[in-house]
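Appendix C: a fully annotated inverse folding record. The material below is reproduced so that readers can follow the format used throughout the book. The structure is listed first as tokens, followed by the designed sequence.
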């Protein structure tokens, strides 16, 4: 059964709009994309804010805007440069789509950004919410922008019955959202309702006593905020054990190019949690890594045995023998890392190569933070290099944490 929501009375709409905008005008956070508003900057911020907290996004947005201050500079950049600027922010498909959209805008529209919600929604990586946010905030188009925070505020505003909330189509809530959008200040309104959800109308323990629209709310006075909106069942966390290999030489670390095989030959004795991880770090440089084993299995013993490292050197996809130059092999204590719903226990093997003259026949002198592997230069592109990580090569947080891991006696 689907329920139909009655329209809000015009008087209530006006009161809710006025009260919320007055509150927002005095309580809005001083976010950098608000302090220096621009069409382009709004687009970048909205894509970054998807599934990522404001606190995390702020420094990334500032650096990204410094590196790529307009759509032309973003389009001219290589995907590697864009991913490098995004490195550590996660959900890297967002960065790839952002780059694709920039190139489309420059190639097909002479660098002119989309002028309405429909045009924005045609861009890679821009969905219903982001298109509404950009169109209303940057262009003044009277359209709603319903993210998780706004949806929670709207649901509590119009529902006091959890069952009715469940039975109502999303389009009904969107109709109410359309009715509430302020005609003269649509962008400010959308920011206000999202800010209210982030600071006051929180998922748990909402601050109802501080809410500027409490008098018009149905869930709050009814004591139903803990049930409205109904909580979606989250994906169960999957516990994973894996190992990485950090090969270092004179402050440079072996990185494998995007698309190169990185998995160390694995054992079929243990249950695999995820056999293909390429989609999680597409376009990023990486390091030799084991398969992702279910933590419930006895894989830890396999991952922490020196034979694990030997297997990679014996079957290295590089076609270059580095094993004769190994000076030391040490296992570091495990660290924890989260990727989507995976909870990783990561062991890191640190392999140090000797600093004698023999290895000079394999590596080029350092230049711009890189040492090229000379026998691999016949390939059209570098399939692997040694890097001091100071350059623009994009790497994941997992790789960075592996490189930064230390032995207890080093702390």
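Designed amino acids, in order:
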């Amino acid at each position: 059964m689907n329920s139909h929501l009655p329209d809000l009375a015009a008087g209530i709409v006006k009161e809710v709009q006025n009260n919320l905008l007055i509150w927002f005008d005095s309580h809005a956070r001083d976010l950098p994309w608000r302090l220096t508003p621009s069409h382009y900057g709004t687009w970048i911020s909205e894509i970054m804010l998807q599934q990522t907290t404001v606190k995390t996004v702020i420094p990334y947005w500032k650096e990204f805007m410094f590196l790529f201050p307009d759509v032309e500079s973003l389009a001219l950049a290589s995907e590697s440069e864009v991913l490098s600027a995004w490195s550590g922010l996660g959900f890297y498909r967002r960065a790839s789509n952002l780059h694709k959209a920039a190139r489309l805008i420059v190639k097909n529209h002479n660098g002119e950004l989309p002028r309405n919600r429909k045009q924005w929604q045609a861009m890679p990586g821009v969905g219903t919410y982001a298109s509404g946010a950009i169109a209303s905030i940057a262009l003044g188009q009277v359209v709603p922008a319903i993210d998780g925070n706004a949806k929670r505020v709207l649901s509590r505003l119009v529902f006091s019955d959890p069952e009715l909330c469940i039975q109502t189509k999303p389009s009904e809530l969107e109709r109410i959202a359309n009715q509430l959008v302020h005609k003269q200040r649509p962008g400010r309104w959308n920011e206000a309702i999202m800010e209210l959800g982030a600071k006051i109308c929180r998922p748990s323990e909402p601050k109802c006593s501080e809410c500027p629209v409490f008098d018009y709310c149905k869930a709050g006075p009814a004591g139903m905020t803990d049930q409205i909106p109904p909580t979606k069942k989250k994906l169960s966390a999957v516990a994973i054990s894996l190992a990485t290999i950090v090969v270092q030489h004179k402050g440079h670390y072996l990185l494998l190019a995007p698309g190169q095989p990185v998995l160390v030959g694995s054992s079929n004795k243990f249950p695999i949690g995820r056999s293909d991880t390429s989609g999680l770090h597409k376009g990023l440089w990486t390091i030799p890594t084991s398969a992702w084993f279910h933590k419930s299995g006895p894989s830890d013993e396999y991952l922490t045995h020196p034979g694990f490292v030997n297997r990679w050197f014996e079957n290295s996809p590089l076609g270059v023998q580095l094993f004769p130059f190994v000076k030391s092999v040490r296992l570091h204590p495990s660290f924890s890392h989260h990727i989507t719903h995976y909870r990783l226990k990561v062991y890191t093997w640190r392999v140090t190569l000797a600093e004698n003259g023999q290895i000079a026949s394999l590596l080029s002198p350092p230049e711009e933070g890189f040492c090229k592997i000379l026998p691999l230069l016949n390939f059209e592109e570098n399939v692997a290099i040694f890097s001091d990580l100071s350059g623009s090569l994009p790497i994941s947080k997992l790789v960075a944490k592996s490189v930064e891991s230390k032995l207890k006696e080093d702390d």
